[in-house]
Amino acid sequence: MWSRHEQSQSDTVRVSKSLNEGEIKYVQDRMVSVEKCLKDHGIQSNNVPHIAVLGSGGGLRAMIGLLGCIDQLYEANLLDSVLYLCGVSGSTWSQFEAGVLKQKTAERDILYLQGLCGSVLADRKEIPHLIWQRIKISMDDMATKVVESILELFDCEDDEESAKHLQKIHEIMSVIKSEHDNTARKSMVGKSKEEKYECLAEIALDAYREFKGVFHTLSDEVPEEVLSDERTHLEDAGPVMDSPYVAALRPDRKVKLILSFDFSVGDPFMTVIQAAKYCKDTGIPFPPVDIPEEDKDKPKDFYVFKRENTPTVIHIPLFNMVNCKGDVAKWRQRYPTFTLGYNREMMDELIRVSGLNVANNKNRILQEISDACK
């Protein structure tokens, strides 16, 4: 007769046979730790669930926020219950495959990492410096100003302020454009978020066309697969779906419970709503997502979406009515996405507040893990 440990390993091999060899071994090794972790919490089952922790995008806010959540998962002795840790944009740093570090790089201090560990759009200082210093052409000052103004627009919700940034872009572009150019002037007034992003994409493309001469020196570093395509659209994963549900929901990973930490800006339910729509369109099992209207501006600190034959999704907004003591708007304003950095006090406070989302909900997380074992 097989022991429970042997049975769980056999099940892992069977359900994971389409994974690569390295990931199969990783799953086997990790499931031993997962089973022990659950036993430590009084949960014993022949059906040990595959659990994934997701971190959304959100620049430096997401990077530090996820650190606070992971730290509290460790303190609560829950971290070993996790099989997969997935991130997107600001929640990603050190690249791993099957639990093994793919490439060791020199350590950097937090002042350097605060930009480069987030979305490339969040780094208004390092990226222009690295690119424009290397290109060394007479137009680099103007190009940098255009890039910085475009980045400012991504986080700007005030029509008057947006108009100022647009005016700066139009003034710079008018200097370098032909006198016969008839490009229409863009406006952000009255546009939805989706229309705003489309407009910004057009502005960025327009700027690229004018400055494209500065980019030709980089072409030898672009993969041949990209250069050979007639049309290739590359985009930070954040604007597409600001949480790594697609990675976690690969069928061969058999994830049964998702613990999603949302650090994104704006609508605190956008990521899970986007995931539900994506799964509906692609035929991937996903529970229905129903958000009370009153929660959209005043989110709670713990939501569970579940249905038979779908993964259970725990959704936790970073700033909520519990850890922010009712003042969500103040905390959102204090920690913007596009920033040159947070001071040490702000970082410590963000780690504390994000950690409360785990500490305050430990028992509820354990209950969902227990239910997933059935």
From TrEMBL:
Sections of the chain in a coiled coil: none
Matches recorded under SUPFAM superfamilies: FabD/lysophospholipase-like
GO biological process: glycerophospholipid catabolic process
Keyword vocabulary terms for this entry: Hydrolase, Lipid degradation, Lipid metabolism
GO molecular function, one term: calcium-dependent phospholipid binding
GO cellular component terms, A-Z: cytosol; nuclear envelope; nucleoplasm
UniProt keyword Phosphoprotein, yes or no: no
InterPro entries for this protein: Acyl_Trfase/lysoPLipase, LysoPLipase_cat_dom
Name the UniProt record assigns to this protein: PLA2c domain-containing protein
Species annotation: Synaphobranchus kaupii (Kaup's arrowtooth eel)
Organism phylogeny: Eukaryota, Metazoa, Chordata, Craniata, Vertebrata
